[in-house]
Amino acid sequence: MAKIICVANRKGGVGKTTLATNLAVALNNKGKSILIDADEQQSAFKWANQRDDIECITIHSDLLEKLEQLDKEYEYILIDV
């Protein structure tokens, strides 16, 4: 069962994506991890596409359904909302 970490805040510009991307790098060194970018700006997704070591997907609906699928494949799931 994966550990799921969601970085969320109602206010913009508080460092959610910065925290999520840094956690993605750190946790990727500990085990198989994936970063989910659920933010409309897709900043984390754009950042991850410049790297070879971070898996990242975007999701804008059916997040719970996707989490159930990913839970079987990954040790860590990070969500940038």
From TrEMBL:
<protein>
    <submittedName>
        <fullName>UDP-glucose 6-dehydrogenase</fullName>
        <ecNumber>1.1.1.22</ecNumber>
    </submittedName>
</protein>
<dbReference type="InterPro" id="IPR025669">
    <property type="entry name" value="AAA_dom"/>
</dbReference>
<dbReference type="Pfam" id="PF13614">
    <property type="entry name" value="AAA_31"/>
</dbReference>
<feature type="domain" description="AAA">
    <location>
        <begin position="2"/>
        <end position="46"/>
    </location>
</feature>
<dbReference type="GO" id="GO:0003979">
    <property type="term" value="F:UDP-glucose 6-dehydrogenase activity"/>
</dbReference>
<dbReference type="InterPro" id="IPR050678">
    <property type="entry name" value="DNA_Partitioning_ATPase"/>
</dbReference>
<dbReference type="InterPro" id="IPR027417">
    <property type="entry name" value="P-loop_NTPase"/>
</dbReference>
<keyword id="KW-0560">Oxidoreductase</keyword>
